[in-house]
Known about the structure:
By secondary structure, this protein is mostly helical. The chain has two domains: about 1-30; about 35-100. Helix content is about 80%, strand content about 0%. It is built from five helices and no strands. The chain has helices spanning about 1-10, 10-30, 35-45, 50-60, 65-95. The longest helix is centred in the last third of the chain and has 30 residues, at about 65-95.
Amino acid sequence: MNQVISFISGHEMMLYFIILSVFVGVEVIGHVPTVLHTPLMSGANAIHGVVIVGAIHVMLNVDPSNIAAMALGFLAVFLGTLNVVGGFVVTDRMLEMFKKKK
């Protein structure tokens, strides 16, 4: 328990910043019109390419005998790739709605 209290007191400003960021994020997202949710979410999913690059970088620096780290890295790459592909699929479907029908 003393370790938790010392961590909180040592990182007090960081915790305040995270809490404030959560409140600001909820307030900003709460005021986005419903029409814009799909394009914003598809763009946010595409940004997860950074997660893929980070996971690959971590996997390159991990000892190959560390099975747990390699499995978590593979899972991060796999889920990040699914998220990126899903973001682009949603964007493509959304853009199809605006095309003129033949």
